[in-house]
Each structure stands twice: as C-alpha cells, then as structure tokens.
Design a protein that fits this description.
alpha+beta; five-stranded antiparallel beta sheet; 5 strands
C-alpha cells in the first residue's frame, strides 16, 4: 500500500487537488475583497464563486487525466475541438457563453448596479427600468408599470445605456417642438 502512495501519479494528483483548492480559495477571497470595495451584492459574489469554481476544477480534472496517461492523441483532438467550439461561442452574438462572459464584465467594470434606474438605447425597443438583479445569463429590469423584463447581458454591453439617477426619462427622450426638423 505504501508503494501505491509513492507513485508519481498519485503524488501529482494530490498536488493538483491541493493546489487547485488553494488557488480557488485565493481567487474567491480576492474577488470578495474587490466586491466589497466596489459594493456588489452577495448574490453576485455567489455567481462569481460558482463560475470560477467550474473553470478551475475543470482545468484540474484535465490535468489529472493527463497525469494518469490516458490516450493523449485522441484526448488532444477532443480538447482542441472543444476549445474551437467554445472559442466560437464566446464571440457569437446570442451565445450562452457570451452572456456568461458579459456577466463577468458587468460585474467588474460597468458603472451601474442593482437598484440603478437605466435607459437602454435600442432603436427597436427602448427600455427605461430599474435593475432588480444581474444574473449569469441575463439582467432583470423592472419598468414603472411593474413589467419584469429579462435582458441578455451581452446586449447590455452592445447597446448604449444611460444611468438616470433620480430622473424619470433620458436626455434622448426630450423633444423640442419649436425646432423645425423638416428638410
């Protein structure tokens, strides 16, 4: 039994598991500190923990599979195909992965947060609403009429968004009837 635990594969597997656990905790700790600093909600921190955990532990499992010497030729073909599909999906407009990526970007960099009143400048369907929640794939917007709108996160990155503060409308809503716009 002692010889089994001294095998390089077992030692590397245990090392990968311990290292991944430490890295995962370190990322969660630093994300929690950053979340406190930029005043993000507890629910957003939970999403971040979940998604980073998926990514980090998947990398750990792949590393362990490689350590134990599975057929790497077929594995690398499958891994390359997977990365190609994921790469295309990250840049696809309506992709689930692009919404998850957009969720991370919204979490760390965008100036609006839950409770802000915003105006989405969409020529087809402009929306003025209060952000009630930002989830992994979509943002929940509540209009003055009580309507709950689920808006994809990637569209919030693509469209112009105004933070309205205490105003009911946007500067783009103002019409001046005294100006003659005829040509």
């Amino acid at each position: 039994m002692k010889e089994y635990f001294s095998k390089p594969e077992v030692i590397l597997t245990v090392s990968f598991l311990i290292g991944t656990f430490i890295i995962h905790r370190l990322i969660i700790w630093s994300a929690a500190k950053l979340s406190q600093k930029i005043h993000r909600s507890e629910l957003r921190k939970q999403y971040l923990k979940r998604y980073t955990g998926y990514i980090i532990w998947t990398i750990c499992v792949i590393a362990i599979i490689l350590v134990w010497g599975f057929n790497t030729k077929g594995f690398f073909v499958a891994l390359g195909s997977t990365f190609a599909v994921v790469g295309v999906a990250l840049f696809a407009n309506w992709s689930i992965l692009s919404n998850i990526t957009a969720s991370f970007i919204l979490y760390f960099t965008f100036p609006y947060k839950i409770g802000d009143r915003i105006r989405v400048h969409d020529k087809d369907l402009p929306v003025t609403a209060v952000i009630s929640d930002i989830k992994g794939f979509y943002t929940l917007l509540e209009t003055d009429e009580g309507e709950l709108i689920t808006y994809p996160n990637n569209l919030l990155l693509q469209k112009g968004v105004s933070i309205l503060q205490d105003k009911k409308g946007s500067i783009f809503d103002i019409t001046d009837d005294s100006v003659d716009r005829t040509v």
